Each structure stands twice: as structure tokens, then as C-alpha cells.
Amino acid sequence: MNTRIMKGEQNMQITGAELFVKALLAENVNTLFAYPGGQVIDLFDALYDTKELDVIVPRHEQGLVHAADGYARSTGKVGVCLVTSGPGATNLVTGIAAANYDSVPLVCFTGQVPTHLIGNDAFQEVDIVGITRSISKYAVTVRHREELAAAIKKAFCIARTGKPGVVVVDLPKDVQQAMGSDIYPDHVEIRGYKPNTTVHMGQIKKALNCLKQAKYPVFLLGGGVNIAHANEEMTALAEKTGIPVVTTIMGKGAVPTNHPLYVGNIGIHGSYAANMAISQCDLLFSIGVRFNDRITGKVSEFAEKAVIVHVDIDPASISRNIKVDIPIVADAKKAIMALLEKAESLDFSEWRSKIGEWKTQKPLGMEQQELFGVTPLAVIKKINEVFDQAIITTDVGQNQLWTTQFLEITDQKQMLTSGGLGTMGYGLPAALGASLGNPGKDVVAICGDGGVQMNIQEMATAVVYELPITICILNNGYLGNVRQWQEMFFQGRYSGTCLRYRRGCPEKCGTQNNSAAPAAGCPEYIPDFVSLAESYGAKAIRVQKYEEIESALREAKNTKKVPTVIEFIIEREANVLPMVSPGKSIDHMIMEVQTNEKKMY
């Protein structure tokens, strides 16, 4: 891309490292997630006396980038990372992919060996631009000191505009050390980069004309609505038109989940009512949705009776997975505002009544509602009660799916989750970033016992930065989501999913029938999460009875300056239901396990 600097006056000569700091301050960056190393030592030296920047040093670069991601999602600002070359840079890769998939604005600076050594297999040299080009919005190596200012300005511009995403800026050591102008531009023009900023009113009118003819319309809302911060406008549009609202996992919270027009999540673990509404609708008004396989099920039968309207800021997303009838390329908020201005009040009471019957007949948590114990439903319902104003992060697996099913989200609550990439280990560091970006606000991480261990070292980060987050671990002793698939589709062959396993265990084993406890002779779970948390300096509570759930959560909420870990011992073979079988349409749902008997091997 060619870039033209628009404004600036030369004052003095400074190093590239000093210009780096000046650029961050000019971009209103006040929190930098950084880990030192040989190829960024000059940048850290330039940061040493900078009081305006809070430099956060997590314990691993993957935790660092997830923390920056959580910071960005929860604040709406650009998250900024700084790591050294080689393994420091490659440790960012998973977090870059996760953030870019979910359209999170990040700028990731990586150190690099001096330009004369690039390509010579120097110590800790990797082609991080080549590695990340396909999983970022833009990636560049700055090879000349005079290009540095424009490269940084361009990075922030690209990350935050259009469809947000991740930009990687690779900084060779000699560029950091070289002297040059202290000019940092007010803005840049980037040839070939022109994000769409308008709404095609002709397409809006077509969509509204279809709406007037519809009898069974549904709004399907994805993460694009939340990214555009269009929640208030979307709620007003739903209320004005009277159209029921279904969301993807990433779109949850686009309208408050306690709103009478909200039906539920769609997809392979969506609610019965939501999946049926999509399957029976005659107009599907989708906004900010990717239509990935997790929500469509069998593509040929997805909303097959409906005229499909698709609003998305990315033209490449439209008709990529599901062929649509009326494409609208636009920012979600601008499109919603245009629709709100032109839409009419309509009567869909009969259709809403039918959806209400589906919700009543087959509500979420049918199996768990019959149990009285430490169930995921019970835990999340208590989280809803205790944390009425909070940011909730999740890990990935069953914990994520239960949370997205049962968590209530209002204008006072927000959920952060890795939706597109589905990254285990996301929940804890994302909670750190959210807490740093929203001081004084309650932050809760809901994790599984498997996922939380992938970045458990960030417990130290939470302690040293005095972050009073609440970490809820739903411990069933399994990699539960894969175990569920093994139970339901692989004849109960639990291969590699038991986290109590030790080398001395029998070759094949199972658990006692319908028991929350491990089978007789099973080894103790490792680690002891309570002891581990306490060794880090955190507060820790283990919950094994229903009546302990609320008191543990309230104790955590009232604990200041240290994180609290609550380990909830849940039934070992609890399942996330409903579930759509692989290859089936989303109206073919498994609502309950046919038998509670667990196979023994």
C-alpha cells in the first residue's frame, strides 16, 4: 500500500524507539501489553520514563495477546501488543488469529533482527509477516527509519476502520535505533484502502418492501452488531417492527436477553425455539453474520423457506456460505439507523405467539432443571443474580456453550468469547484485559478445568496487578466438549479426554453410572486448583453443594485487590443440549440423552 502523510512539522531528530513511544501517545494508547526481549530492549528503554503509558507484563505472550484482545473488546479501543522477535512473535500467532477472526482491533508490534541479518537465519529470526499474513488484516516489516511514522499511523487506521482486525508491525532493531524526524502524522491516506461508509438506500427499500409482505420474519444478529455498538438502535428497530430476534453466539447481547422479543441463540447448540424460528421463517433479516457452519447446520436446508437479507460491512462475507437475495454492504449501525428511520410498525403477534409456544414446550436446560446440585445452569443463574453489572469472559468448550445459553446480557453486562477460532485458554487472560480497561467493574471468567490450564500462569499477572477478577472453573475432570461428542457419536470411546488419567490407569475405563464422582480407584485430579490459586496469592474456594454457590460468588465479588478462584465440582458427564447432529439441519435437535446409563469399559 502507498501511504501519504497529510500533516506534520519537523522539530528534532529522535530514535525510532522514541518515535514509537510518541506514536502510541498520539494514538491515545494508555495501556500496552508487552513482554521484553533482546530485539525490543530499545523500545522498553524508551518506555522506561513514560508515565502516560501503563506497561502490563503478562507471563506468556499468548496470555498477553488475549489480554489485549479482552481490553479491546470491552473498551472499544485498539488493543496494543509489544513482543520480541522469534518465539516472542510466534507465541502471538494463536491470539492474532482469534482476534482477527472475531474482528477485534489490535496492533501487534514485534521486534526483529537488524535488517542486514534478515534472511540469514539469525538468532531468534522468523518471518512473522509471512506467518501472519493470512490470519491478520495487514502485516508489514518496516525496513527504513523514514517509513516508521507512516507505518504506525497506517497500522492504527487499518485496525480500527472498516471491518476491524489485527495489524502486525515488525520492527527491526536497527530501525528502532536509527535517528530520524520526530514527525508523527495526524492522519494518512492509504491508496487502495477505502472502507465502505455509506448505506445503499435502494437496497434498504427493497428489504423493507419484503418485510411488508412477510408473515414470519426473524432478525438474525451476529457479532457485527456488537462491534458496531449498535445495540440501542437495534433494540429500537426490533421494538418498532415487532420482529423476533435470534442471535449467533457472537451476536448475543445485540438486544438484551431479557427482552420479550429475544428468542435465543441459533446453531448446533442453539435453543429449540431459535432454531425452529429460523427454519420456519419466510424472511431472514441477518445483520453482521458470517453464516458459518456452527449456525447453519445442513446448508441446503438452512432457512430454505425464507427470503434472505444480509447486511455486512465486508462484501466478501455476503453469499459466501449462504446465498442471499438482498445484499447490503454497510456498517451495521448505519444500516440499522437507516432501517429504523424508514421502517413501519407491523403486527406479527401470531408469529411471536408460536415462537413463545416453542420456548415454553422445550426450554433451555431441560435436563439440568430436573437436578438440584452444582449444575452449570445453577452456577450461571447465580452469576446472573450476583453480577448484575459485569463483563463476563469465557473459555472454549462446554463452559462456553453453557454460558452462551444461560447468561443474561443487558446494557449493563457484556460477554467476551472466542467465537470464530474457538481458542481454549482465552477466558482468563481476556478477563485480565477487561479488568485493566474497566477499573472498578466486576469481571468474571467462566472456564473449564481443561481450558483454564492453558494460560493458568496469568494468575500471577492478576495478582501482581491487583485485579479482583472472579475465575469460575467448571470442573468435570474431562475435556468435556470432545467427551460429549465421543459419548454421543463414538460409542462412548473416551479417547484422550479424561484429565484424571495417569499412566498407571487401566487401558480403558469409564465412570460410575450417573455419578458426579470419579469411579472407584480413579486418581485424584491434578492440579488442586485451590492450592494452586493460593500459591499464586489468590483467594480460592471449592464448591460442591448447591447452597454454597451464591455465598462463594458474593464472597468473590466483595474481595478487592486479589483474584478469586471458585472451583465448581460439576457432574462429570453433563452434556450441552440441545445439539444438532453432524450433517443435519438445525431443526433436527437432540433434546435429551436417551438414557442416563453411562457405559463402562
Ends apart, CA distance between termini: 60 Å
Compute the CA-based radius of gyration: 25 Å
Rounded mean pLDDT score: 93
Overall body shape: globular
Would you mind describing this structure in some detail?
By secondary structure, the chain is an alpha/beta fold. 34% of the residues lie in helices and 18% in strands. It has 23 helices and 24 strands. Helix 23 links the parallel strand 21 and strand 22. The N and C termini lie far apart (60 Å).
Question: Topology, pairings included?
Answer:
Layout lengths: L2 E3 L7 E3 H11 L4 E4 L6 H7 L6 E3 L4 H15 L3 E5 L3 H4 L2 H9 L4 E7 L15 H5 L5 E4 L6 H13 L5 E7 H5 L1 E3 L6 E3 L10 H13 L3 E5 L1 H5 L3 H11 L3 E3 L14 E4 L6 H9 L2 E5 L5 H4 L10 E6 L13 E4 L2 H11 L6 H13 L4 H4 L6 H11 L3 E5 L3 H9 L6 E4 L10 H11 L4 E7 L9 H7 L5 E6 L4 H10 L39 H8 L2 E5 L5 H9 L6 E6 L9 E2 L8 E2 L11
Parallel strand pairs: 3-4, 3-5, 5-6, 6-8, 7-8, 11-12, 11-14, 12-13, 14-15, 15-16, 17-18, 17-19, 19-20, 20-22, 21-22
Antiparallel strand pairs: 1-10, 2-9, 23-24
Helix pairs in contact: 1-2, 1-7, 3-5, 3-19, 9-14, 11-14, 12-15, 17-18, 17-23
Relevant terms:
6-stranded parallel β-sheet; 24 strands; 601 residues; 18% strand; alpha/beta; globular; 23 helices; disordered C terminus
